[in-house]
Write a sequence for this structure.
């Protein structure tokens, strides 16, 4: 009965998340509090057990990398990079898509996808409308490139930070295990867009010529001091993360120390401080870990692991692949961070004959594929959609352009993202089959 009630609270929490675009951390914290209360009353999930369920190293990674990303973003270097790339790509729509996707991937290697999309989407909209080019395929390509870039490294997205803590993985492990697969995925993405776009420029988008003349990308100034401080801090952090495995130091605490330095150097104002250190993300994932811990304490996760083992018998390679596909399916609806936290205990239970870390890469690749399929699964999907709507609202003179069918909708995203999820899962299945031996 208690287990059933716990599952219902978990489901209700994520159902509530679908009803609101802001304050998700508050919803999750409320869900976590409810589960701790239920566990305490039943005696099966105490406050101490809830604290033990939290991956504090993951929270340290989120804090540190958020602070460093905020410092670099405040210097203006990301915006200048995106704007410069877009300006140099004008005149060729496909070149805009390719270059902006590559820039997005590069930024996402070290910065979470929310920061990346917040930088590149406004630039993309301005450039595409100036070129009378449909911006929606470019934005979708950028969201997918951000997911791929984030999945390539330990510090690029929240799911990988969770798996790093759960699997005791290091920075170099992700470079060797995830980046090759994600680079292949990026190449497949660009080929897919080239195939699907066809004659992209065949329909002229009605944009007022006066708007094209007046709307220019301003010259983004880069704060040299902040840029130097940010690059030095980032370089020192990466060096520390690379050496952490050699000296038996956990990466989270390297990132935490670097984050403290970044916050001190950035001189953030009081109203900027909470966002700069990833406060809402820390609260969200802290509450999520407590909720997942309740599922584990009450045997729900053990039941899921037993079901997986029974379904795949003794075939660990098949089990890893099934885990990957299942994680992808769930990620579409609940997002990558939740899937990573839920399935991490299953990945830890797998023992493969080949690469001992293949189960973790299977889970990470499944989460990445699912996050590309639909906007609810994409970390920055809702932000990109809001930016698109806000841009058109600020520029009513572009209403005619929006009325010709270049709407950025959930259905339009799925037209591109869902087939790509299938491509990624197919490629990843082959990759894991080889790794698992």
């Amino acid at each position: 009965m208690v287990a059933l009630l716990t599952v219902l609270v978990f489901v209700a929490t994520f159902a509530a998340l679908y009803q609101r675009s802001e304050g998700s951390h508050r919803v999750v914290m409320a869900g976590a509090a409810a589960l701790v209360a239920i566990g305490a009353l039943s005696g099966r999930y105490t406050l101490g057990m809830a604290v033990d369920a939290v991956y504090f190293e993951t929270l340290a990674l989120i804090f540190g990398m958020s602070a460093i990303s905020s410092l670099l973003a405040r210097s203006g270097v990301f915006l200048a990079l995106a704007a410069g790339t877009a300006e140099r790509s004008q005149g060729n729509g496909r070149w805009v898509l390719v270059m902006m996707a590559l820039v997005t991937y590069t930024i996402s290697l070290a910065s979470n996808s929310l920061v990346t999309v917040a930088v590149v989407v406004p630039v993309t909209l301005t450039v595409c409308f100036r070129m009378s080019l449909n911006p929606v395929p470019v934005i979708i390509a950028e969201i997918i490139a951000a997911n791929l870039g984030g999945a390539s490294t330990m510090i690029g997205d929240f799911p990988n930070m969770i798996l790093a803590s759960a699997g005791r993985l290091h920075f170099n492990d992700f470079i060797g295990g995830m980046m090759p697969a994600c680079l292949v995925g990026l190449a497949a993405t660009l080929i897919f867009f080239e195939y699907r776009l066809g004659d992209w420029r065949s329909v002229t988008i009605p944009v007022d010529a006066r708007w094209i003349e007046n709307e220019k990308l301003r010259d983004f100034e880069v704060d040299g001091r902040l840029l130097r401080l940010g690059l030095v801090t980032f370089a020192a952090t990466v060096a520390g993360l690379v050496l952490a495995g050699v000296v038996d130091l956990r990466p989270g605490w390297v990132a935490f120390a670097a984050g403290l330095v970044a916050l001190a150097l950035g001189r953030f104002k009081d109203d900027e401080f909470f966002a700069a250190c990833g406060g809402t993300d820390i609260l969200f994932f802290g509450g999520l870990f407590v909720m997942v811990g309740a599922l584990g304490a009450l045997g729900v996760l053990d039941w899921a692991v037993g079901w997986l083992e029974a379904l795949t018998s003794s075939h660990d390679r098949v089990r890893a692949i099934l885990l990957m596909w299942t994680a992808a399916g769930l990620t579409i609806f609940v997002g990558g961070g939740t899937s990573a936290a839920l399935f991490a205990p299953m990945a830890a239970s797998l023992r493969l004959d080949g690469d001992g870390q293949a189960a973790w890469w299977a889970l990470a690749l499944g989460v990445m594929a699912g996050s590309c399929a639909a906007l609810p699964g994409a970390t920055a999907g809702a932000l990109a959609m809001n930016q698109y709507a806000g841009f058109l609202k600020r520029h009513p003179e572009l209403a005619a352009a929006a009325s010709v069918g270049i709407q950025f909708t959930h259905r339009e995203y799925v037209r591109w993202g869902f087939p790509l999820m299938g491509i990624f899962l197919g490629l990843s299945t082959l990759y894991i089959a080889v790794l698992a031996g």
User: Anything to note?
Assistant: The two ends are 42 Å apart (CA to CA). The mean pLDDT is 81.
